[in-house]
């Protein structure tokens, strides 16, 4: 049985073992590469899956791909300028169509997930392809009197009709003053400053990503897509809804209001949020100018498995302050474990049960990694038992120990041969000098029983 912290009740929620467990994960806005901070949040559904499957429980994950409606001010759709849509801005910058941008960054995103050994979501609906479902939800919200049309035809959700607004984040409507960041630019079509657009009427300036609807030509709000997609996929009952901590408000408050009002019930059982990733002390974000991509890490000779290990070593509800030192140390652990686990290993049942219990206890991945490390130390005298615990633990946590082979140049191959010969002849001075030459060529040099082994050197941009 999985217990998970629910932001709304501020308590652990018990997830029913009725399978499959239904998980909806807020997905990326596909207008640029995701960074390690985004990836930390996007790892959350995979961790839930990992925990559940360790207990033999199936899950079904749906994650949306936002390719329309996410406005630059980040608070929804309050901005009046229709080209403030993140997709349209990037399309103009790269001089291609908005949907070309969407497909490009969507496939890069999915490749990053795979590199982190994340099981891809069972469904990844795209906002631009779910417009009919959004229209149906908006029509029903208007019919039920939870939504209204403004003077320009745009449709707004009437926040005051949902009395428990604010339950997730604590930002209740009486605290939201006009001019709060929440509001963005004041839209005179709204009746109340806390209302938000479900459908925004566009003008001729917006030439892409618009659709004809009963209310006129326009585009959807960011929040309505998640309601439409999650209800379409799961009906009116979702076990777990995930996202980064900053999505609590307004995105998840608005989504909960829409979904509950259209369904007439509390749709989501547990709202689960991942804390932020900091990099060298500041939140990783484009505006802070400290974005690190997975490809940057790989270029530094650090494997995606090391990134996964660092994420797991820090509980998802704590801020994680990442540095290059931490990444290098994790890569060294991966390499050490990879050397120890060579070939098929037996499952260590004791460790398996321990880690499963830790995962089911609010995804205590940090303790799970400690369990591997202490089992490794305890069994230091028995190499094969040590290999078993590392194989068992890394397998359960989906830490891939298969280190990518490095391309070795002809020059390097010659130096390796010469070095192996020098070692046979016990010419240590020559062997050391050849090792130094290989290191200066960018390789990490190891002595295996079969001779000199080369790997990619770990070369972080700065330490
Ligand atoms: P965005 O691309 O800004 O919409 O963010 C996509 C997801 O990444 C959201 O769930 C955010 O909460 C999450 N996110 C953004 N920055 C960070 C960060 N530094 N650490 C963790 N999650 C983040
Ligand atoms: Zn969402």
How would you explain this protein's 3D organization?
This protein is an alpha/beta fold and 463 residues long. It has three domains: 2-274, Rossmann fold (3-Layer(aba) Sandwich), CATH 3.40.50.620; 300-396, no CATH class; 410-456, no CATH class. 40% of the residues lie in helices and 15% in strands. The chain contains 15 helices and 15 strands. A four-stranded parallel beta sheet has the order 4-3-9-10, sandwiched between helices. The longest helix is centred in the N-terminal third of the chain and has 18 residues, at 98-115. The radius of gyration is 26 Å and the shape is elongated. The two termini are 43 Å apart. The structure holds adenosine monophosphate (AMP) and zinc ion. Adenosine monophosphate (AMP) is lined by residues 26, 28-29, 37-38, 40-41, 243-244, 246-247, 274, 276-277, 283-285.
Task: Please sum up the structure shown.
With 463 residues, the chain is an alpha/beta fold. Helix content is 40%, strand content 15%.
Topology:
Elements (H helix, E strand, L loop, with lengths): L1 E5 L4 E5 L5 E5 L10 H7 L1 H11 L4 E5 L22 H9 L3 H18 L15 H13 L3 E3 L5 E3 L38 E6 L16 E3 L1 H13 L3 E7 L6 H13 L4 E7 L2 E3 L2 E2 L10 H6 L4 H10 L6 E3 L1 H17 L8 H12 L4 H14 L4 H14 L13 H15 L3 H13 L2 E6 L2 E6 L7
Bound molecules: adenosine monophosphate and zinc ion.
Secondary structure category: alpha/beta
H/E element order: EEEHHEHHHEEEEHEHEEEHHEHHHHHHEE
- Mind telling me the CATH class of the largest domain? Alpha Beta
Q: What is the residue-averaged pLDDT?
A: 92
Low-confidence parts lasting 5 or more residues at pLDDT below 50? 74-78
What is the domain total for the residues? 3
CATH superfamily of the largest domain: HUPs
Share of helix, binned: 25-40%
Q: Tell me what portion of residues adopts beta-strand conformation.
A: 5-15%
| Overall form | elongated
Q: Can you tell me the CATH topology of the largest domain?
A: Rossmann fold
Termini separation:
43 Å
Radius of gyration: 26 Å
Query: Main sheet: which strands, in order across?
Result: 4-3-9-10
> Helix count?
15
Q: Could you tell me which ligands this complex binds, including any ions or cofactors?
A: adenosine monophosphate, zinc ion
């Amino acid at each position: 049985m999985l217990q998970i912290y629910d932001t709304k009740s501020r308590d652990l929620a018990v997830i029913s073992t009725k399978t499959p467990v239904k998980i909806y994960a807020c997905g990326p806005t596909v207008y640029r590469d995701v960074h390690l901070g985004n990836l930390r949040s996007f790892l959350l559904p995979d961790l839930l899956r990992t925990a559940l499957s360790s207990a033999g429980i199936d899950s079904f994950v749906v994650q949306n791909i936002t390719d329309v409606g996410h406005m630059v001010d980040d608070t929804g759709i309050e901005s009046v300028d229709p080209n403030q849509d993140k997709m349209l801005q990037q399309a103009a910058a790269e001089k291609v169509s908005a949907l070309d941008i969407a497909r490009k960054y969507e496939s890069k995103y999915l490749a990053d997930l795979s590199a982190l050994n994340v099981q891809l979501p069972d469904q990844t609906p795209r906002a631009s392809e779910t417009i009919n479902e959004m229209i149906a939800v908006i029509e029903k919200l208007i019919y039920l009197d939870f939504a209204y049309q403004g003077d320009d035809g745009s449709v707004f959700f009437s926040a005051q009709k949902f009395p428990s607004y604010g339950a997730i984040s604590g930002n209740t409507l009486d605290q939201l003053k006009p001019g709060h960041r929440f509001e963005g630019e004041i839209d005179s079509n709204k009746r109340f400053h806390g209302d938000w657009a479900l459908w925004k009427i566009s003008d001729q300036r917006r030439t892409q990503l618009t659709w004809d609807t009963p209310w006129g030509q326009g585009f959807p709000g960011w929040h309505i897509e998640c309601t439409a997609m999650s209800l379409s996929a799961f009906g009116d009952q979702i076990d777990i809804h995930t996202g980064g901590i900053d999505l609590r408000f307004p995105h998840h408050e608005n989504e909960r209001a829409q979904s509950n009002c259209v369904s007439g019930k509390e749709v989501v059982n547990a709202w689960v949020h991942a804390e932020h990733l900091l990099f060298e002390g500041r939140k990783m974000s484009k505006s802070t100018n400290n974005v690190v991509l997975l490809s940057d890490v790989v270029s530094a000779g650090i494997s995606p498995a090391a990134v996964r290990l660092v994420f797991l070593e820090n509980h998802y509800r704590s801020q994680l302050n990442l540095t290059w030192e931490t990444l290098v140390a994790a890569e060294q652990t991966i390499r050490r474990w990879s050397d120890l686990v060579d070939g098929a290993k037996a499952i260590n049942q004791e460790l398996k049960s321990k880690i499963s219990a830790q995962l089911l206890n609010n995804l205590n991945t940090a303790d799970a990694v400690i369990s591997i490390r202490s089992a490794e130390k305890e069994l230091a005298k028995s190499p094969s038992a040590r290999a078993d615990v590392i194989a068992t633990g890394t397998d359960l946590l989906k830490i891939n120990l298969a280190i990518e082979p490095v391309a070795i140049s002809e020059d390097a191959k010659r130096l390796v041969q010469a070095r192996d010969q020098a070692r046979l002849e016990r010419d240590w001075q020559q062997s050391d000098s050849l090792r130094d030459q290989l290191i200066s060529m960018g390789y990490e040099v190891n002595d295996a029983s079969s001779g000199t082994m080369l790997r990619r050197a770990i070369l972080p941009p700065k330490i």
